[in-house]
Amino acid sequence: MRLNRVILLLCSVFGAVFAAASPAAAQGLGLVERHMSSPTPALDHPLVFSVYRPALAPTDGTRWPVVYLLEGRPGLSDWIDQGSVYEVIDRAIAEGAIPPTLVVMAAAPFSWYADNPQGQGLVATALTRDLVAAVDARYPTAACREGRAIGGLSMGGYGAVLYGLTRADLYVGAMSFAGAIAPPIGADETERLARSDVFYDGAFGRPLDRARFNDMTLFAKLREASRAHGPKAALFLAAGDADRGGLLLSTTRLHVEAKRAGFDSTLRIGAGLHDWPTWRNQLAEGLAWLGPRLDPSCGKEIARAAPLPGGGEPPSHGTP
Q1: Which residues have a Cβ under 8 Å from the Cβ of 227 and sit 6 or more positions away?
Q2: 209-254: per-residue pLDDT in tens?
Q3: Which residue from 118, 229, 288, 305 has the fewest beta carbons nearer than 10 Å?
């Protein structure tokens, strides 16, 4: 199985697409397509992303749900190269934790996934508007909120929850794996302000604009989302018990505030550091949490006709 996966990864670099009858598909392994790109009106360069495609086509009346996974800082393809994410997804699908699901791994290094006209540009707009539209046009996806979720690790965990809170019309759930969650910077926290000016890569102004940063914290966005009308994305917040103290405390605090605000929020604190073994375990837990919340039919009932005389069943068809 490892050899088949290596062959798929190498071939995908050159744009090859394996047919459904390939040995990997026969064993139930999804296919990985690397270095995909799509133009975006929001940026002056194409978006680059990788895709995990399920081995099986969508069943009658359904389409593939989509999970977007955001890279950490400064990852480009770490979900694949270091996380071997396809193994986690293969297992989740095989065990029935999630339905066959398209997984899109997007990267925007050092952007903090924020719109920043003075820096890397409208990254949030590109990912939530242009990439979603491109993926829905290219693949047989469940192009609806009920069939779409987002997650990320470290910097990407911040971005995933940011999008879950600000674009709940797009995502039914948002998952943070050791997300870089931070509280607002106080007026007297001069040392923290200086450290943050380096750490946040100019995403919130250079030098860092404290008011702008505070407005973009997940705590501020949570308060805004709690006052907004419309659906609210469910939250899955995970951290390792040996992770950096600030991340562990901030993740717990965000969960408590989300619960108090009426959000469907789940907190998972397990053994682990800020590393790939921990993130792989958190992703597996997150997918199991997400599975019951995904609806590949986008709310449509799948019609089933009566059994045929003499046994057997006719094919089923989705309602229009």
Answers
A1: none
A2: 999 999 999 999 999 999 999 999 999 999 999 998 799 999 999 9
A3: 229
